[in-house]
Each structure stands twice: as C-alpha cells, then as structure tokens.
Amino acid sequence: MRSVSWLFIGLLACAVVVLVAAEWPKLLDRAGARARRQRQRAKRKAQLKLLRTESDEFAASVQRDLERLPTIEERDRS
Predict the structure, then answer these.
(1) Cα radius of gyration rounded to whole Å, the chain
(2) Rounded alpha-carbon distances, angstroms, from residue 55 to 27, 43, 67, 78
(3) Contacts of 35 (CB under 8 A, 6+ apart)
(4) Sequence spans of domains, the chain
C-alpha cells in the first residue's frame, strides 16, 4: 500500500510539472514585465481624448496649399 501512495505522489508531481511547462508562456504573459507594460499602455490609451477640429477649414487649408505648390508641365514629345 505504501509503494502505491509514493507512485501516486510521483505521478501527480509529474503531471503538475507537465501542466506548468505547457502553460508557462501564458503565465509569463499574465504576470511578466510585458503584461505590466501592456496594462500601463492600455491605461494611458484609455485617458486619451480625440480632439475634433473643423474639417471644412482643414480641407480648405489643404486645398490652398496644394494650389500654391509649383507644378512641372510635361512637354509634348511629338
């Protein structure tokens, strides 16, 4: 009876080792430095606010800038 209990404990320990080895990448993702950086980044991103501007004014400004750009006219080669 005593040898069966030692065998059972050994098999249980091996199963725990295999389980930890299989889940190690997930454990590192949740508890590691990378996970901490991701949580901090998510927290900073949650505090960001989108500023809306007058899109018509911006479009007009871009159009004026484009009209002021110098252009090169292609010459006919015929």
Answers:
(1) 33
(2) 46, 29, 18, 44
(3) 28, 29
(4) 2-68
3-state secondary structure 6-70: HHHHHHHHHHHHHHHHHHHHHHHHHHCHHHHHHHHHHHHHHHCCCCCCCHHHHHHHHHHHHHHCC
Residue 63, amino acid: Q
Give the C-alpha separation, 8 to 51, whole Å: 64
Residue carrying the six token digits 């911006």? 58
The per-residue pLDDT string of the chain (78 residues; one tens digit each, 9 = 90 and over) reads: 566 788 899 999 999 999 999 988 887 777 778 878 888 999 999 998 877 767 788 888 999 999 998 888 766 555
Helix (H) or strand (E) segment spanning residue 5: helix 2-31
